[in-house]
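Appendix B. Chain record.
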Amino acid sequence: MYRGPMVERSSPQPSDRAPGLMVAAGVELPDDVDLGVHVVIHAGVRIAAGCAIEDGAVVGKPPRLSPRSRARREAPGPTVLEPGAIVSVGAVVLAGARIGAGTVVAAHAFVRERSSIGPESLVGTGAVVGCDVRTGARMKLQTASVLVSGSTVEDDVFVGPSTTSMNDASAGRSKPELHGVLLRRACRVGGGATLLPGIEVGEDAFVGSGAVVTRNVPAGAVAMGVPARVVGEVPDGDRLPG
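Structure tokens predicted for this chain:
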């Protein structure tokens, strides 16, 4: 495996603050942070008041990239947990990620380097957020969903369980420019949907469960099927106020 310049040289050391806790030098733990057992906190992590890091979670781990990875290789910067953020059992938050105030990274979820999750959001159980992702406030990424690297998600977006997004139009055969998905404010994506590279789902649009989205979905539209087609409009009563 590639060991690039972002790999940390110093290792976390045992701390008596909690059973099995390992903390790197220079990390400050607020008095009210709730720590589970066997938590690992790497260098460069900034933890605000009221946070919780539950059993077996890992925060601030530098990424290890394969030689063929096209992810950025520069140092990812500090990892930040804003006030009241929760990193649940077995979750992993890599170096350079920012977890917004009041956001929950649920059990066994994975947030990659340099991604920023907005406040009051949810990264569901077993969900994956790729590198360099930006999300707004109150996003809900449900169980086992994948938000591919380079994606942008605006406020109040809902992504149903087991939804998949992609950013490589060649499916790994060549090396095109990668394009994540763009999910506009208050759009909703049903469980088990698939979003192809570069897809934009418009504001307040709705993508039905199991749909395969191969073209952009206009604002306020309802799209369903394989491939997804626009079949109607979201009723005014189901749209969020502007």
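Further analysis of this model is presented in Appendix C.
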